[in-house]
Specification:
Elements lengths: L14 H30 L4 H8 L3 H22 L5 H29 L4 H23 L7 H21 L2 H28 L6 H27 L3
Helix pairs in contact: 1-4, 1-8, 3-4, 4-8, 5-7, 5-8, 6-7, 7-8
Length: 236
């Protein structure tokens, strides 16, 4: 049974409905970031964390299997978050995606915490929030529909996946940096696109799905900013 009653798209809703939808979306985004942080802290303090991280990199195929599983879980989580069947399923989708991100982030955060400069994580967080705030402000003040960016994101995502597969076998710090800078640019485009969608394309009852989409873009941006900082710190 469809629990939604054909809620209006945010841009066509009343001012109070639109404002409520935006508050719920960014409130859920903040909640997802907080849950991710708590979960990651728990994972990084597991007794055998070093063995777990080394196991994730036992071979290129192991890491590619983890990335493939992450992609599959991401599609499932997004489908659940967009579900019109029940709010519970939407929250399950968002929660599943947060857990998947925590797992995929684990090796990089372990390196930053134990093998590199501990200030890199807060630095990456500040840079990520600054870029996110700037792009969000640009989208809301211009009120432009950036849906034309979708083909760029689709093609860029496919190229990025190919680059990640190549990097798993070729490696090399310079090659990794090229991927990271390209992914920072792609994640920035994704934030602009998803913020535009919040304004122009989501219904006022789709705050969970909108929060998941924004969280995915912000997490990607943070991941590759941190990767760049680790690679350029000279202490990795």
């Amino acid at each position: 049974m469809n629990y939604a009653m054909e809620q209006p798209i945010a841009i066509r809703a009343s001012e109070s409905e639109r404002a409520g939808f935006i508050r719920r979306t960014y409130g859920h985004l903040a909640g997802a970031i907080l849950a991710f942080t708590i979960l990651e802290m728990g994972l990084l303090n597991l007794p055998n964390i070093e063995g777990i991280v080394l196991g994730m990199f036992a071979s290129p195929w192991t890491w590619l299997l983890i990335v493939g599983a992450f992609i599959g879980v991401s599609f499932l989580a997004e489908a659940w978050a967009r579900s019109d069947v029940s709010p519970g399923l939407q929250y399950m989708g968002l929660g599943l995606y947060v857990v998947a991100e925590a797992v995929i982030f684990l090796p990089l955060l372990y390196i930053a915490t134990h093998l590199s400069d501990r200030t890199l994580i807060p630095t990456a967080g500040i840079l990520t929030l600054s870029v996110f705030a700037g792009l969000t402000l640009a989208a809301f003040t211009s009120r432009k529909d950036f849906s034309f960016l979708r083909p760029i994101l689709c093609i860029g995502s496919l190229l990025a996946l190919g680059a990640v597969i190549a990097f798993a076998f070729v490696g090399g710090p310079s090659f990794g940096l090229l991927i990271a800078f390209a992914m920072v640019a792609l994640a920035s485009v994704a934030i602009l696109y998803q913020t535009s969608n919040v304004i122009h394309h989501y219904r006022t009852d789709q705050h969970v799905a909108a929060a998941l989409a924004l969280f995915a873009a912000v997490a990607t941006l943070f991941y590759y900013i941190l990767w760049i900082l680790i690679q350029t710190s000279g202490r990795d």
